[in-house]
């Protein structure tokens, strides 16, 4: 969609940094800067991070160094839930793509890349103005698409950066939906960003339909049909949070080896937090119920008799990650966030961690998408906090002065 208008990445960035390359089984050939972490499958001699909660590395023996470290691929294949080989292969390609994005985001040249303009309109289902795609979004989108193609396991990819889904191969067993780089407008301020993804099974009953139609319908599956979802947080550490329907796990990128290392085998969001995350500057545009809820909890007059604090990064993955760790609620009450690419995958993760995802009235995963770029309010957080929030009734902000929809 953007290829005709956008300059290739190597033309956008007139420099030649001396990066190492990943020694992956599936090297990408796109002309983007390939970051220099140590080999993904390389030496395991330097592994400073150990799995929390007493997890041990795979089996001992057979080359295991006995240091208690569990990599993402080891966890998927032997230590964890013993996924199908096809899904392990797909996750291997997704994590590789995210390592490349992490290195580009962290490079000293990312600010200048993010400020490039003139890449054309479109994307994100008619995004314009403050939502217009930036080059980093497009670069990340191309990296993910390339990795999914090389995996051989994906029939269709639907991305926030593309108007329509991309059909890849007829016999791919999976469907991937993704927001390639959420929060990219914050890059030049070094604010955390993230990649969001969800994975569905391909609907084989649609195989006889025309390509465009089956691509669309495969991408519009209800969040209740997700078989996996995750996000990668690009911050002081690069953290992959993922769920396959049996809890939520966190893996942290070890830059000395290039491996994602298991650092939290079972994330449990506290049932009650003391933090709310929302754009308070829009307080006077909020509906009555939402205003009452915020007034109540920050004065310590709610069901939890402590005063809540406001923490707002304006980066969805970062705000959610903090909420998973500390509890509370992260929210955007406007019809702004995308059901397919953001709300469904993140709600799946939160529910698997013991929390709740809601549009303010309904469970997110119970909603049936009707449009690829469908927007809605999004509330994610601790179960008790979410129940209290929804009890105030009118929390969806339907009037959005100052915003283009």
UniProtKB/TrEMBL annotation:
Q: Which Pfam families match?
A: FBPase, FBPase_C
Q: Which residues form the Fructose-1-6-bisphosphatase class I N-terminal domain?
A: 81-264
Sorted alphabetically, the keyword list is: Carbohydrate metabolism, Hydrolase
Gene Ontology molecular-function annotations: fructose 1,6-bisphosphate 1-phosphatase activity
Quote the InterPro entries the UniProt record gives.
FBPase_C_dom, FBPase_class-1, FBPase_N, FBPtase
What EC numbers are recorded for this enzyme? 3.1.3.11
SUPFAM superfamilies to which the protein is assigned, alphabetical: Carbohydrate phosphatase
The UniProt record lists the Fructose-1-6-bisphosphatase class 1 C-terminal domain at 269-392
From the Swiss-Prot or TrEMBL record, give the protein name.
Answer: fructose-bisphosphatase
> GO CC terms on record?
cytosol
Gene Ontology annotations of biological process type: fructose 1,6-bisphosphate metabolic process; fructose 6-phosphate metabolic process; fructose metabolic process; gluconeogenesis; sucrose biosynthetic process
Q: What organism does the UniProt record list as the source? A: Lotus japonicus (Lotus corniculatus var. japonicus)
Catalytic reaction list? beta-D-fructose 1,6-bisphosphate + H2O = beta-D-fructose 6-phosphate + phosphate
Q: Does the keyword RNA-binding apply?
A: no
Keyword Transferase on entry = no
Per the record, the similarity remark reads: Belongs to the FBPase class 1 family.
